[in-house]
Write a structure and sequence with these properties.
Layout lengths: L16 H6 L5 E6 L19 H11 L4 E4 L4 H8 L5 E4 L4 E4 L3 E3 L8 H15 L6 E5 L2 E5 L8 H13 L4 E6 L2 E6 L5 H11 L7 E7 L5 H7 L4 E5 L10 E3 L2 H17 L4
Parallel strand pairs: 1-2, 1-10, 2-3, 10-11, 11-12
Antiparallel strand pairs: 3-4, 4-5, 6-7, 7-9, 8-9
Helix pairs in contact: 2-8, 4-5, 6-7
Bound molecules: ligand L263DTV3.
GO molecular function, one term: trehalose-phosphatase activity
Catalytic activity: alpha,alpha-trehalose 6-phosphate + H2O = alpha,alpha-trehalose + phosphate
Enzyme class: hydrolase
Length: about 270
Amino acid sequence: MIQKREAHELPSALKQFNELKAHFNNKIPAVFLDYDGCLTPIVQRPEMAILSDEMREALHKLASVTKVAVVSGRDRQNVAELVKLDNLYYAGSHGFDITGPGAMASEPGGAKAALPALDKADLVLQEKLKEIAGSLVERKRYAIAVHFRNVADDQVEQVRKVVDEVLSSMPELKIGHGKKIYELKPNMDWHKGKAVLWLMEELGLNNANYLPLYIGDDITDEDAFAALQEQGIGILVGEHDDKTAATYRLESVDDVLIFLNSLTDTIKAQGHG
Ligand SMILES: O=P(O)(O)OC[C@H]1O[C@H](O[C@H]2O[C@H](CO)[C@@H](O)[C@H](O)[C@H]2O)[C@H](O)[C@@H](O)[C@@H]1O
C-alpha cells in the first residue's frame, strides 16, 4: 500500500543527506528527474524555462558517474533541446516517448494510436481558446497542455469548459492536471512511474547494484514516487496541491543543484565513476 504524507512532514534531503545516503548501501543511485519546477523554476511561459549553465554542468557530471534520465511532461525533443546533453536519457510526453545514448528510441506506452485524436483536439482547442486572453495550447507529441497561468481568474472556468467539451467527444484522450495547466493525454495506462520502471529494466538497472532515485515537483511525479516507494527514493521539490508519496523533500531548484553535486561526489567516493 502506498504511503502518502504532507510535503512539510518530509525530512530534508539536504539536512538529512547522511541518513538518505545510508539507503544506498553501496548501491549506485540511478537518477530520474523532472524538468519544470525541478531543474528550472516555474515561470510564466514554457519557453522561458531555460536551464542554467550550473545545472547543466551538474547533470553532465552526474551522468558521467551514473545513469541519468529526464522524465518530463514536455515534448521529448523540446526537453532534450533545452537540456542540451547527449549523455542523458529523455522521456517526454509524460513517458510515452523515450530516447537515449546509443540511438535508443522507444514509445513503450503505445500512444501512437492516440495521434489522430491528439491532432484533432489540438486544432479544436486552438480555435476555441483563441478568444481567451492569456490561454496557451502547447502541443507535445503525445499530450496537449492547455495553460491558464496567464488567464484572468474569472476566465479559467471557461478554459476548463472548453477542455471538457473536447474530451467529451474523444474517448481516446483523458484529462491530466499540473501547475496551472489542464493536460489532454492518451487514455492509456501509462505514466511517469511506468516509464521509470521501463527504463530501469531497459538499462539493466533492476538489480542489487542500483537504487532508483526520482526528483520532481508536480502531481504527475507522484506516479513515479509511488512506483519507487518500495525500492527507491522519491524526493519532492517544493510542494503541490496534494499529499505526496515521496520520502524526502528539497525546497527549491537551487537545493536540487546542491543535492545533485553532493550526489556526484558521493558516487565518486563510493568508488564508482
Ligand atoms: O514534467 P515536467 O517536466 O515538470 O513538465 C510539466 C509541465 O511543465 C511545463 O509547464 C509548467 O512549467 C511552465 C514553465 O515554468 C509554467 O509556465 C506552467 O504553468 C507549468 O505548468 C510545460 O509547459 C508542460 O508541457 C509540462 O507538462
